[in-house]
Structure prediction request, 347 residues.
Amino acid sequence: MPRTMQALVKKEAAPGIWMESVSIPEPGTNEVLIRVEKTAICGTDLHIFNWDEWSQRTIEPGLVIGHEFVGRIEKLGDGVVGYEIGDRVSAEGHVVCGHCRNCRAGKPHLCPNTEGIGVNRDGAFAEFIVVPSSNLWPIPDEIAPELAAFFDPFGNAAHSALQFDLVGEDVLITGAGPVGIIAAGICRHVGARHVVISDINEYRLQLARNMGASHTINVKHETIAGAVRGLGIEGFDIGLEMSGNPSAFNDMLRNMYHGGKVALLGLQPPGTGVDWDHVIFKGLQLHGIYGRRMYETWYKMTQMVLTGFPLGRAMTHHIPITEFQQGFELMASGQCGKVVCDWTGEV
Ligand code: NAD
Ligand code: ZN
Prediction:
């Protein structure tokens, strides 16, 4: 086995990402070494690439980035049970403490001590990654590896959408980024009535339609209120805020039906104002969403794909990792859905 590997490293405290040769990590007790096959680029990776204000205060230069991946187990650390060398796996990107109140109550997605793979510890944009075996999620052979590569954001979409009983409900999703697009598909898959999604990007709205959205709104020249009138409804029962845009969020609140429920996934900028009248007088429920349930969301995602959920429609690019710069540029342009990178040389 070689001692070094290629990895995408945040080498300098400046915009950019660098393909470097680094040591292959050793799996410790209860950890496994995975040979990475496919990875996908997340908005978080783009923030780190751009070296924005959040990355500057969060990321230690020298870090291997990335957390959306699939691969095969190469080596088992001491004490690992339930897995074998060669198993195909993805992994939950949040490494939780295991001893806080929420972890012990079986709610590790609410662990306050969570560490992010590719954020606070070395990540998956590398030939190999070490993760705790408790974070692994086995991927059945029937699921294509390029789809398993982005189960992480699929999980954000599923965790947000499956918060609520969607059967027969009218859903508004603000933001047709990869997560919003997948969420639109899930709402359709589980039986919502109208699945309406907004964005300012026509390319992404088309992807959302392919995925199952029944109505799209380009807020550059249409309004959500117009869609409500057009559909002949009084407002939306369910809102999934997936843009991180304050005006989209407030527009959603304005167009919710009384008693509606809203999941907030998009990261709103500090100081975002909220028109509380809509929340209070309409008795809205707002629910913050972080990550995904461990591991019930992973289970639901796997079963949805195995029973025909068209996750592949959210993937628009599959490129060799040597073209990573182009991948990041695509993500920055917004003219893409999920961008998957291949590490095996087969693409
Ligand atoms: P993304 O940035 O690719 O998508 C956001 C979309 O919102 C873009 O397509 C953008 O054009 C659109 N948008 C911008 N202004 C809009 C407006 N006024 N109305 C409607 N749409 C508008 O992000 P993504 O990867 O799809 O993730 C969605 C959001 O969720 C992001 O804010 C991301 O940071 C956040 N996120 C949160 C978690 C979590 O655990 N809470 C996890 C993943 C992502
Ligand atoms: Zn914990």
